[in-house]
Amino acid sequence: MIVIMRHKATDDEIDAVVLRLENIGYQIHLSRGVERTIIGAIGNKTPGDVGLEAMPSVEKVVPILQPYKLASRTFQEEGTLIRVGGVEIGGDTIHVIAGPCAVESKEQLMEAASIVRSSGATMLRGGAYKPRTSPYSFQGLEEEGLKLLAEAREATGLLIVTEVMDARTLPLVAEYADIVQVGARNMQNFSLLREVAKVDKPVVLKRGPSAAIEEWLMAAEHIMAGGNYNVILCERGIRSFESYTRNTLDLTAVPVVKHLSHLPVFVDPSHAIGKWRYVPAMAKAAIAAGADGVMIEMHPNPAEALSDGAQSLTPNNFVNLMSDLKKMAGVVGRKMP
Amino acid sequence: MIVIMRHKATDDEIDAVVLRLENIGYQIHLSRGVERTIIGAIGNKTPGDVGLEAMPSVEKVVPILQPYKLASRTFQEEGTLIRVGGVEIGGDTIHVIAGPCAVESKEQLMEAASIVRSSGATMLRGGAYKPRTSPYSFQGLEEEGLKLLAEAREATGLLIVTEVMDARTLPLVAEYADIVQVGARNMQNFSLLREVAKVDKPVVLKRGPSAAIEEWLMAAEHIMAGGNYNVILCERGIRSFESYTRNTLDLTAVPVVKHLSHLPVFVDPSHAIGKWRYVPAMAKAAIAAGADGVMIEMHPNPAEALSDGAQSLTPNNFVNLMSDLKKMAGVVGRKMP
Amino acid sequence: MIVIMRHKATDDEIDAVVLRLENIGYQIHLSRGVERTIIGAIGNKTPGDVGLEAMPSVEKVVPILQPYKLASRTFQEEGTLIRVGGVEIGGDTIHVIAGPCAVESKEQLMEAASIVRSSGATMLRGGAYKPRTSPYSFQGLEEEGLKLLAEAREATGLLIVTEVMDARTLPLVAEYADIVQVGARNMQNFSLLREVAKVDKPVVLKRGPSAAIEEWLMAAEHIMAGGNYNVILCERGIRSFESYTRNTLDLTAVPVVKHLSHLPVFVDPSHAIGKWRYVPAMAKAAIAAGADGVMIEMHPNPAEALSDGAQSLTPNNFVNLMSDLKKMAGVVGRKMP
Amino acid sequence: MIVIMRHKATDDEIDAVVLRLENIGYQIHLSRGVERTIIGAIGNKTPGDVGLEAMPSVEKVVPILQPYKLASRTFQEEGTLIRVGGVEIGGDTIHVIAGPCAVESKEQLMEAASIVRSSGATMLRGGAYKPRTSPYSFQGLEEEGLKLLAEAREATGLLIVTEVMDARTLPLVAEYADIVQVGARNMQNFSLLREVAKVDKPVVLKRGPSAAIEEWLMAAEHIMAGGNYNVILCERGIRSFESYTRNTLDLTAVPVVKHLSHLPVFVDPSHAIGKWRYVPAMAKAAIAAGADGVMIEMHPNPAEALSDGAQSLTPNNFVNLMSDLKKMAGVVGRKMP
């Protein structure tokens, strides 16, 4: 890390900082400039753990190394391939996870699953536990929903992706799901991350709406440091002042994360945008930007959906999108199953 | 709610929307304008629960009523008073919650508690379970930290405010704490909110860094709908593009929440700003803006803190601030204990 | 517009609002509900022009119609085609505007122009007047730069796109340029918009970094209302908390603007992102999302650039990108020249 | 500046960066670490002017010195006092600038001025040229408005603060105004800043809604570098995701700017918030936070205002606020005239 001292910091103040750094095991390179003294400190602590900025003589502390290690491309150069239920995520093949926001009934889910299957997607999404802004909204079918998802897998061969909201229900969710999802609002629920780290299933880690890319990678680091290396990152929009869309889809995060990390990256345009009309264009753009897959909300009848109908594609629009995505995959040198 | 139809929506499309609304129990007022048809719908559902925006003929759905009820001043005109351990929160008296970010040791906590006590503050803060961005940082003393907090209460008479991160440790936290805190990153951890709702202790609910005021009040609604009416809201900064401070303290939220809700509002300038230098000015501004109290990080030796030293006041700066806050309370017609 | 009265608004208060609205020419539909009275007001004023929210009895005013008219697809259903110097913008053909951030010298510009030409792009960008954050940075060659741009056009046949910063130099800029650019930081410089409206050249209107889509369209409306209908919108990133990239490229704005307006939309990933490494991926994504063209910074030697070298492609990277964009255009049913 | 090389940068790549830096006059300190090589470069160029980040071997460039000089407290330790028309801004006395958003008529302005005068404020605001989002809204009385402002000064002795929108009308505005205002949306209109720098009147420089504090100070630097040292900074809200208020008042910017710069700082809560109801609380908080003054919109009859009625105080509310501000000034060791 580099410590920039305040203008006119005295020798005593500089010595105090150097001493503090040496005491906790850093090697020091001191550079006294005309305007500022700069202290380079080489060692292993995270700058946030060293209370230097509490010292009035310190202007700024600049970290040099990225705070994430296991998630970094510096640590592992080649991209991570995640193999689950016969598919490979993060390789040449682009995967589509699709389905309704919430599991509502057997009929709804089976109809959705059948459309997802026949369109060429490989994974079925559907929430059994729903994080809802209002306590008065539909909260999901819970275990009953998990069972329906398992039935849909049985019937179609699709892999099941579903969200876990709570460490207490994680064993149940992990029993039914092929891939466990950590939702955007739980991205920094560190208790949950620690538990998910112990599960032997890949994890889709949604980016939090106010999470910088580095914080998102740090959340992945929590899971990896706990022993689960199969993390799929999923961009789903960040909060900005633009309110026409629900969130602002930060598609540039795709090539950025591909550069900084070896983990696969998906994009969920449905939740990011909140309006079905713009989902197909942005799903295509996600593939063009280099995503390893997309997650799409599709409902047999969006106008009757109990949750997020406004952002769900109709079966017809979804089938058209799948056809477009296949062409798009080709043009970026990839393929779809 | 009001449904604005798209320009050139046909009669059939309008009828379909009306029918959908009537079927789920809304009363309809139709207003056909030259440019747009407007449908007024009177009933009890939350607009988000009605998939109208999935219909291509619908331009926009505008809710009329606030989605929160129990937290609203429409529901309860007079401000909520929360009585706990002999103090009253939300009344004329302004309270200060102060202490270190994390409980680090008996010595550190006892020293902090003694300073907090003698300065005139009534509540001691200190984290036993710490949500940390990095898995490699100090994560808190856990139950040992809770016990030290109880000892500090014993020694000083201060009330204990500490954070719960997980439904599984809630019983333990609630056993030791006088007031349970839900942290900013858990503001929409709905599983946790549901559990906190069942506990017989007041709850400090921090505002999430990307939570709109309405979402914050909806999080309070989750707790109140579950049976716990003693919610203290705490503004602690929102995420904006300005990166000089850690977050952007949205102090205007104080009078806004006072207008929309009857719940008490505190402000935590330490976490919002992340730099101790600016904390005293903003603590004073918080009281001037109408806050019912402030939460301040103070550490016996910030430069040695294991967590958030950069934003902690020294004992000396804290004592000076307390003296300023007393004057400030007077000028807005309030008092301090 | 719809006026939502406060809970418990009295009859006198409601009458006062109705009277105020009738006096300025609105027709009124009154709907007294149990919880709230709603006043529908039909007329032509912009809600912001009516001081209703100054009345304490008014809770909220909701506009129904979009505030822009000429720029709206409701006003003109088919997309605007802009014909300039033999090219057609907004039709089937996707155009690329490329070149250095600033015109630095004859040699630099001619070399850049020659690469741009041979790669198949149709327009050359280059700043003669540079808006620079620091007064101590290179501010552009001014008229000398404009002359060099004209020479480059002469030599290559490329159309010239260059920025105007001031109403006083507009005549000069408009004399040399084929397309005049209004920069992001001038998007709400209404004096400049009014002058640009009188010029007989198409205008590239960059989106301001804190401009909502509606405000951007309102800026276009200023130009169109003044008589210049040839406005090309250009998304170039909005300000968000994510600081890894310079701004957050809001690519979803492309299909949104295509839905709301008939104007052509370009994307400038170079300025949005600020790092050359991620520009090609996002240029491709822009075309996939439906943009009518992209604007790309390319410099013969980025490391020697006087301005924005960090985001400029090398000639080699640019030529590769052009080849990718041609394939991308094909897959979305469009072509490149 | 400090240059952080990429992991595995080769010796040749490191040499190329060193050579580039030495060629443009930097002194070099090289530090080869195990994970990263760090290059310290001492010299006078702004990092943005050096295209190092265009080199693929460079990971990141970290500036050490602040890019502003004249505006910095490092350059001038004691606070700037601005003396104009018998008042002193930036000293012990807190000043209030008040009046309507726009000059609408002689009657309106005189009534407003008389209230402003009798309440103890020293300066009258009122727009003659109005930057309006819609081209169909009232655009101001222009020169006629300036004449009315001069008449109001004649009648009351108040100093006149009014906005300039265009270099072409600046001579006229400067002739009538005592203090010239540069609006938020023109904060980075560098052509205008350069002209304002040549005028012999103090300048109120509003913070742009997407301007970081450093950019705001750089805009002041533009004016100061051009010769006008009498710059009054004015915080007026930044753009965030919170849409209940028009912008988010970043009150922490007050103590931050006071720390970084010697220039006086005002706060305009009216434009920041957009709702009159919350303006008094935040005006008081501004003084508590250390502002040198506030700018308040007050209209004799807000409900009839041609512009921004929703955020204007009534005369009665304004008079009450002035009385509260006097008490507030006392408690922070300052006074009002």
Describe the structure.
4 copies of one chain form a homotetramer. Chain A is of the alpha/beta class and 337 residues long. Chain A folds into 2 domains: 2-62, Phospho-2-dehydro-3-deoxyheptonate aldolase, domain 1 (Alpha-Beta Plaits); 82-331, Aldolase class I (TIM Barrel). The first copy, chain A, is built from 10 helices and 14 strands. In chain A, the strands form 3 sheets. Chain A has an 8-stranded parallel barrel, surrounded by 7 helices. Chain A is elongated and about 75 Å long.
What layout of secondary structure does this protein have?
Four copies of one chain form a homotetramer.
Chain A lengths: L1 E4 L5 H13 L3 E6 L4 E6 L15 E5 L19 E3 L2 E3 L5 E5 L6 H14 L3 E3 L17 H14 L2 E6 L5 H7 L2 E4 L7 H7 L6 E4 L6 H13 L5 E5 L17 H8 L4 E3 L1 H5 L5 H11 L3 E5 L17 H17 L6
Parallel strand pairs in A: 7-8, 7-14, 8-9, 9-10, 10-11, 11-12, 12-13, 13-14
Antiparallel strand pairs in A: 1-3, 1-4, 2-3, 5-6
Helix pairs in contact in A: 2-3, 2-10, 5-6, 9-10
> What is the oligomeric state here?
homotetramer
SS content category of chain A:
alpha/beta
H-E order of chain A: EHEEEEEEHEHEHEHEHEHEHHEH
Number of domains of chain A: 2
Largest interface: C-D, 54 and 55 residues
CATH class of the largest domain in chain A: Alpha Beta
Mean of residue pLDDT values of chain A: 94
CATH superfamily of the largest domain in chain A: Aldolase class I
How far is the N terminus from the C terminus of chain A? 46 Å
The count of strands of chain A amounts to: 14
